[in-house]
Amino acid sequence: MPDTTPTNADWVATASTLSQALPLFQRYAGATVVIKLGGHAMGSDAAMRSFARDVVLMSHVGVNPVIVHGGGPMINEMLEKQGVVSDFVHGKRVTDAETIKVVEMVLSGLVGKRIVQAINAEGGRAIGISGKDASLMICEQTDPALGFVGTPVECNPKFLQSLNDTKTIPVIAPIGAGRNGETFNVNGDTAAGAIAAALKADRLLLLTDVAGLKDASGEVVSEMTPEAIRQMTADGVIQGGMIPKTQTALDAIDGGVRAVVILDGRVPHACLLELYTEHGAGSLIRTPR
Ligand SMILES: Nc1ncnc2c1ncn2[C@@H]1O[C@H](COP(=O)(O)OP(=O)(O)O)[C@@H](O)[C@H]1O
Ligand SMILES: CC(=O)N[C@@H](CCC(=O)OP(=O)(O)O)C(=O)O
Fold it and tell me: What is the C-alpha separation between 232 and 215, in angstroms, rounded?
């Protein structure tokens, strides 16, 4: 058997690599990074573990990560089991009184707690909440035709600061409270954008199932301005589920978020690649400096 015990030279090499990484990790120290984890990006347990490790590492190196999650496919699965049919209009689920109960149970219960448990298993300290907790996200009905679908009209993120003070990572389900006691179903991207704007976040990362925003020739564009997005939308290059995502990005930037990145959440360590590598990952959207 070869002796694989590390030598002093091995330890010195490792320590040297770690010390070189220090300036890199200082780049986002103190920054608030809101991460939207979509249902399609959650996938396997391995993908969830990779995501959880990224979040824990970010927290250890001084980032304030705030997670907002989706869970559309998981809601679909539960509704199907119960024989409830739901339609989507412009990417939003038509949500009746029965459906909102299932949406809240799946998002605040199953999906949120799965993420919390994954982060805690990696040594982090996560807590699962929804937009109802501490009146984080107050909503109004988006459109009577959509039922209990809400648009955030007031965000109260103050208590998120107290979580950050104790290095507790919030995992937020996109459920909002109405002023008359209603429960509202909020699109995950919309919720993440509203919370990021309320926090004036340094970055909003929208994790999805494509490498980034593609131009008319199908190439991923690594950086673009809000103006370029508007043009791509007018030209029909941005379609389907990408429309609410890019609209969220534009609204978040208008609301004071420094930059938004649309990236593939299925890629292992997507968040670390974006924050800590020279070229990042996905498509970065920000106003020209
Ligand atoms: N210009 C574009 N660039 C990239 N993806 C696009 C574009 N236009 C439309 N899409 C579609 O948008 C989808 C992402 O939206 P969606 O499926 O709603 O994501 P999620 O479930 O992660 O919220 C992509 O899978 C892609 O099919
Ligand atoms: C109003 C509305 O459509 N809400 C979404 C909330 C979950 C979500 O946004 O999930 P993804 O991010 O995985 O798509 C829904 O009911 O599916």
Answer: 8
Has 147 been labeled as part of a binding site? no
Asked, for residue 24, whether it belongs to a domain, the answer is no
Residue 207 covered by a domain? yes
Question: Which ligand 1 atom sits closest to the C-alpha of 189?
Answer: 23
271 inside domain: yes
What atom of ligand 2 comes closest to residue 39's alpha carbon? 13
In whole angstroms, how large is the CA radius of gyration of the chain? 20
Tens-digit pLDDT profile for residues 22-56: 888 888 999 999 999 999 888 789 999 999 999 99
**Among protein residues, the one whose CA lies closest to atom 24 of ligand 1:** 210
Contact 112, 69 (CB under 8 A): yes
Residues 183-226 pLDDT 10s:
999 999 999 999 999 999 999 999 998 999 999 999 999 999 99
Indicate the pLDDT class of residue 174, thresholds 50, 70 and 90: very high
**Inside any domain, residue 7:** no
Our count of domains for the chain comes to: 1
CATH number, domain at 42?
3.40.1160.10
Report whether 185 belongs to an annotated binding site.
yes
**0.90 surpassed by complex ipTM:** yes
Where does residue 111 rank: exposed (0-12), middle (13-18), buried (19+ CB within 10 A)? buried
Tell me which residue range forms the domain holding 103. Answer: 29-285
